[in-house]
Amino acid sequence: MASSSSVLNTGPGPSLTDPVRYPVSASPAVRTKRAFVLVLLTLLVPGSAQLVAGDRKLGRTALRVTLCVWALLLLAVVLLLVNRSLVISIATNPVTSLLLVVVMSALALGWALLFLNTLRLIRPVLLAPRARPAVGIALVVALVLGSGSMGYAAYLLNVGRNAIGNIFSSGPAIEPVDGRYNFLMMGGDAGDDRTGRRPDSLSILSVDAQTGQTAIISVPRNFQNAQFSEDSPMRALYPDGYDCGDECLINAINTEVTNEHADLYPGVADPGAQATMEAVSGTLGMKIQAYVLVDMEGFSTLIDAMGGIRIKAGGWVPMSGYFDEATKTHGMPLGWIPAGDQTLNGAQALWYGRSREYVDDYSRIQRQQCVQQAMLKQLDPATLLSKFEDIAGAGTKVVESNISSAQLGSFLDLAIKARGKDVKRLTIGPPDFDASFSTNPDFDQIHERVDQLLASASAKGAQSAGIPDDGTAVPQAGAGHVQAAGAVPATLPAAGSAARQPSPSDFTPVTTTPDGEPITEEMLTQLKLEGNEEAIRQLVATNGQCAPL
What we know:
Keywords: Membrane, Transmembrane, Transmembrane helix. The chain is of the alpha+beta class and 549 residues long. It has 19 helices and 13 strands. The chain has helices at 2-8, 28-44, 48-53, 56-82, 84-92, 94-122, 131-167, 253-260, 271-284, 296-306, 346-354, 361-378, 381-386, 388-398, 408-418, 443-456, 459-465, 521-529, 533-539, and strands spanning 180-188, 201-208, 214-219, 290-295, 309-313, 317-319, 323-324, 329-330, 335-337, 340-344, 399-401, 424-427, 546-548. The longest helix has 37 residues, at 131-167. The chain is elongated. 38% of the residues are buried.
C-alpha cells in the first residue's frame, strides 16, 4: 500500500484537489468563481480556459490562433499609421476581402465552439442552483461580445464587398493628371420610361492627389455648345461643339449618345455617361478621369440611411407641387424647407437640391453643392459604422461609377485627408459669370478660371498666388460677374492676384420680412393663394445660400 501511495503522489501534473481542473472537490463559492473566470478567459484570451482546465492540446492550438490574430491586428494598426491606403485597399479588394470574410467567419465559428467547450468545463450541474442563471447569462453575453461581434464584422465586410462590386468597375486604376484626380458627378433621374439619364446636375470634383484639397466646378445643365475632348468619338460628329440648336444642351448628350450613338463606344458600359464626361473635359480644358452617376430618385434613400444631413439654409425653399403648363407656374407647394439651421431627411434633401421655383437654376446649383459637401462632411466613421448596412444597401440602388474598385483604398485615404479642409468652388454661371454666359460661353475665359481655381486648390499654387487657404475662386475684372442675392461682389485685381471672397458660410439666413415680421409657412401659403408670386420671390431670393453644419 505504501508503494502504491508513493506512485500516486509522484510525477508532474496537478493534484486531484486542484479546483480549476477538478472542481468536484471545491466548495460551491469556488466553483462559481471558477465558472466566471473560465468565461472571462475564453472572451479575452480564447484557448486559455482549455489550457488550464480542459483539453490542453485544444487550448494550445486555439491560443496559437489567438496570438496570430493579435499579431495581424497589431500589424494592421502599424500599417494604418504608416500606409493607411494599403490597409483600405486590402479591405476593399474583391479577392482579399473575400478571404477576410472567410477567415473571420471561421474565427467566429471556432470562438463559438470554444465557448461551448467552456460550458462543458464549467459543469453547470456542480454549481449552486442560484448561481447557474448568472453564469449562463455571463456566458451568453461573452459569446455575443466575442464570437457574435466577429461574425457580424464578417457579415458587414461581405455587405461592403458586394456593394463595391455592384457600384464600382473592375477596370484598370487611373493616374492623377497634373497631380490631381478629377471626377464627374452626375445627378439625374432614371425612370422606367427613359432610355439613359438626362442629368439635372453636373459637378466636377477635383482632388489634389497628395493633400486631398478639393475643388468643385459646377456646369449648368443648360450649358450650350459644349466642346468634346480631342480623343472623343463625338468630336467627329460635332467638331465645332455640341451646336445643333437650342435643344443641344450639355445634359442632352447622355440621352442622345445612349439612344443614337452607342456604337461609337464599343465595350463601354455606359456610353452616355462616357460621352458626357468627354464633353465636360473639353469644355473645361481639363482631363476628367472617371464619373459617378447618382440616381436622384433613389438619392433620398441614401440620405435617410445616413440619418439625414445638417445644413444652414439661407432662405425658404419650396417643395414644389404640380406644374401648370397653361400658366407656366407651379401649384401649391407640398411643403417648405425653412431658412436657418435644419436637419433634412431624404425627401427634403432631394427637394432642397432640385427645387428652382422662384429663383434661377444657379441657386439650385449652389444648394446641390451644399448637399454634396454636407454628405461628405457628415459621413464620418461613427455614422458609417453604425449605419453601414443601410448605407451600403442604399448605395447599390443610387450610385453607378466607372471608378476601379482596386483604387478605392487610395481614394478613401484622400477623402480622409480632405476632411476639415475648405472646398474651393466655381460655377460656370452666376454667381461667377453672367446668366447669359451658359448660352454664349467664352472657352478661353473658362479655361483661365478653371486654372486659377485648381491653383488655389493646391498647396503650392495657393502659396505662390497668395490665395488664402479658405478662399474661393473669384472672377476676373470685367467678366460680367453677377452675385446671388445677399452675396458680396468680388473682382480679380488687374495684377492677377486673388481677392478674398467671403466664405460660403458667411451669411445670415433670411427669416423675417423687410418689416421684421417672421416668415412662416402660413404666410407663404397665403401669398400663394393670393397669387402674389412676386412677394414670395423676394422673400425666398436668398435660398441659394447654404453651408453644411
